[in-house]
# Entry
Amino acid sequence: MGKIRGYLQSLASAMLFGCGAVMLSAAMNRGTNAATVCVLRGLVFSSLLLVLIKKRRLSLFLTRKQLFQMVPILCMAGMTSATLNVAYCFLPTGVASSIHFVYPVIVVAAETLLFRTSIKKAALPFLVLSMVGIYLQTNQMGTVALSGVLIALLSAVFWTSYIVLFEHSELRTVHPFVLNFYQGIVLMAIGGIWLAVSDAPFLVPDAKCLLLIIGNGIIAGIVAHLFLQAGIAALGGALAAVMSVVEPVTSLWLSALLLQQQISESQWSACLIILASSLGLMLTDFFLTGKRQNK
# Structure
């Protein structure tokens, strides 16, 4: 029952992240910038979570070891948001999300190399397949869009680092409200430093843009992260990652439907190839797990 709940939580987080991606892209299209989004997004969900923490009388105290682990792990999560926000400036939402979604295969590869998880050599064909999908994406784009592809890939590396480090840390024992409260503070710090060292102004063009950022902070910043962390706790990082297969599908359909973003047939095919690599990896994990249990 616990694993079924973990599957549902991971899938729910993926759908919410996909919705949040479309909201962020819409906000960026209205003229805001990635640094402003980081500051406001972090402010929204840290403020709301502080209210919930006080209401539930939770402690914000962390042990020295948890604090030492928290800083790099939450910086990885914050840099994921920052780089993915920039990628939306160069690429359609669904394309950026699908490239970012190579992270499940990278997670499994990292778990295999660093922690010797069960999938091992079976992960390699799916890693190659996801690289083929990325090549098809980049082959359709010019020099500027290629920068967006590289930034989206960087966001996948940051998110992989977050998932792997979180799974093998003591932060799994920290209440999710408390952990995500600190994550909001880290995200605000990243956005503040970004604004300080760059020429980008703090910019919110209109009320609709602000509402989109606030909505993203609630949906993707709080709820999706809570579901994801619960899914990792129940399934482990590798399987929770590949169960997030519906994230780019959600963002692809919503960006095409709501934002009228044009995606070519070749780019759709590339997105499907990336998704197929994650689905194939998930089915392989089921097969290997069932085979071990039957012995």
About this structure: Residues 265-294 form the longest helix (30 residues). The two ends are 22 Å apart (CA to CA). The CA atoms of residues 29 and 89 lie 8 Å apart.
